Amino acid sequence: MEQEKISAKQLFSLIILFEFGTSLVLPIGFVAEQSVWISILLALIGGVVLYVIFDYLYREHPGLPLSGYIRRILGSVVGWPVCLLYLSFFIQGDARVLRDTGELLISSSYDQTPLFVINAMLMLSVIYVLRKGVVVLARTSEIFLIVVILLGALGATLVLLSGIIHVQNLLPLAGNGWKPVLTAAYGNILPFPFSETICFATILPQLRKKATGRKAGIVALLIAGLVMSFTHAMEIAVLGANIYGRSTFPLFLTISKVNILDFIQRMDGIVILTLIVNAFFKIAIFCYAAASVAADLFRVSKPEKLMLPIGLVILLISMMSANNWSEFVTIGNKVFVGMLLPLHNIAIPVLLLAVHLIRKSFRAKISR
Amino acid sequence: MRASRIVPFVLLLGAVAILPGCWNSRELKDLAIVLAMGVDRVPESGKFKVSFQIIDPGTVAAGRAGGGGEGLGVPVTVYSGTGSTLFEAIRQTSEKVPRQLFFSQIRLILIGEPFAREGVSNLFDFFERSHEVRLTTSLLVARDNDAETVLKVMAPLEKIPADAMFGKLRTASKVWSESLDMQVDAVVNSLVGPGKQLILSGVRLKGDPSLGERKANVEHVDPPALFDIEGIGLFRNGKLETWLEGDTARGVLWVDNKVDGTVMTIPCQNKKDATAIEIMRSRTKVRADIRNGDPVFQVTVKSEGNINEVLCPIDLSKKETMVRMERELSRQIEREVREAVQVAQSHASDIFGFGDALNRSRPKAWRKMKNSWSRTFAECRVEVKAESYIRRSGMRIKPYTKAEKQR
């Protein structure tokens, strides 16, 4: 692990796949109705700013993961419990991604398969890869990015060719004023998925060259944001804002509308594959973040050793966290997107930045 | 050395058994593939009655059915069941079907007219929620009949009646443009808001339905029972109100920008309907605007066509003749559109989606009007303008018929 490190290109593909995660296929921020795609672009700005903060904090504390510099900035008495908070957050967050993925797969195609079986399959493969180290995950992501790009290009081309896009569905732009668009952007889409890049605060120390992280990350975020905005605009243009807002899995519906010459149809497999690949990387990165914080806190030499126990905990939590989909979604919107994500990914990092800058300026004064 | 190779190999073989992921594998021979589904309501109990046209794979399999040999049954079977919800009705039908019903291949949903008149607003939840039924399934209303009766009629040329009905719908909307292919998502989108009302094409059964059920029906040169795609049903708040026929139905399609190709007849000199023009392309734009606080809609139809038949002696080589015919064609299109608008306004049913158009261009005004939209629609001003271009006149220029009296 020490000798092998992640390249900028690998970080780039990890971030793109992570951002796609489940947010590419789920309906996000639908208070904005047909203007969701604008909200995504607006939220992207905030997402990039957050990433720059994460990157700056890492540059100021080279070699230290998130939990390392939290304790350095806040001191270990305050820092240690805060890190524990992050550990539980990463575990919770991963359990949510896992559950989301499992539920989507069941409601769209694996209708008779028990949720536990699907979640266990996903989690076991994640654990397997992560035990080989995060570098292996990064290398895998390079290959799968190409797969996802090809699948996405194929899917988008088919939708375009079958003439089911009705651009008028995207009008009026911000029909209910700009307030819902902004609410969706900063109340909903910035926390999920953009702010979740905090996971990369645990991966950045594995970079081969410290300086390359910022550019690769920003470019990756921009590309992911643009693709996401395009995809959601396409979904609305095909389905209409009403069906889009009510469905659990709009991308799946969009692709199922594809019919070219009664010959090319039923291309749902494209979406299912995209979902599984993207979700795999998101689950893996969250899981790695949790293990990295845990290893650092409890002085375990390598996070790889913790993958199995943490992975199993995540699997169990994903099963226990809600009795049904509605409960899961309610908790997701109210507690997770409403409180936990903004707290861990926006409030605490900004606080860390502030404390760090104040201490730095004091240090500068003293040394002068 | 050898064991270390065998163990992974055996493990890999084991993985093959799991990887296809068939938790609940259903073999083709255990499935009853539903091609068309009919929905009616039982008058006494108010329950749903569903009927399924199910394919019998044995009779349609290639090679065997070609000869239409003796002893083979009909290619489809119709089963039906009742229930308070569609899903219950479907499961109740399952008792009668020896295989599991499978919906992924369903092409048509047929609604009986009596049911359509009672209202279909909450019919579609099942179709949306189910992951087997696709959004690309088309909908039709069985005119003057319940859906079950129409589903039972055998059709010539296609082995499977559902395919025949679907083919007719598709051809009719492509070359005749008096009917339209409405799919589940479009139907749902016209039921959710006040800005658009539902329209559905109709299918009419002609002849004796009891003869149509038999395979013998298709053994006649002129089958005793046939179904035609005919008319467009106008709905108001999910209830079927009236039928638009012929030119009026085409008027709806002009406004909806759905005319792919059709035949227009226009007068020639003093003879009525003496020139046939095939419309090759057309494009309609609807502009919504607010004038003095009232909504105004401008419908502009641009169409392009060729002359296919002339029943009077007229000199098509002259530019002025063509200009005159183009003007005549525009007038005809404008008349059809106005008729359709008039019928829709008299039923206060915005089947053209004018409300949605208003929302797109003037969202603030729309928010004020949407609660009383059907009343506003019934009285709103609609300006119709057609621009037509006749491009060419086939393999001859002047017709061979001589003028009866020189102009």
UniProtKB/TrEMBL annotation, chain A:
The keyword Lipoprotein does not apply. The keyword Transferase does not apply. Pfam families: Spore_permease. GO terms for biological process: spore germination. Keywords: Germination, Membrane, Transmembrane, Transmembrane helix, Transport. It comes from the Bacteria. It is a multi-pass membrane protein. One of its GO terms (cellular component) is membrane. It is found in: Membrane. The chain crosses the membrane at residues 12-30, 36-57, 69-93, 113-131, 143-165, 185-204, 216-244, 270-294, 306-323, 335-358. Belongs to the amino acid-polyamine-organocation (APC) superfamily. Spore germination protein (SGP) (TC 2.A.3.9) family. This is GerAB/ArcD/ProY family transporter. It comes from Cohnella zeiphila. The lineage of its organism: Bacteria, Bacillati, Bacillota, Bacilli, Bacillales.
From TrEMBL, chain B:
Belongs to the GerABKC lipoprotein family. Residues 24-203 form the Spore germination protein N-terminal domain. It is found in: Membrane. This is Ger(X)C family spore germination protein. It comes from Cohnella zeiphila. It is a lipid-anchor. Keywords: Germination, Lipoprotein, Membrane, Palmitate, Signal. GO terms for cellular component: membrane. Gene3D superfamilies: Nutrient germinant receptor protein C, domain 3. The keyword Lipoprotein applies. The keyword Transmembrane helix does not apply. GO terms for biological process: spore germination. It comes from the Bacteria. Residues 230-394 form the Spore germination GerAC-like C-terminal domain. Its main location: membrane.
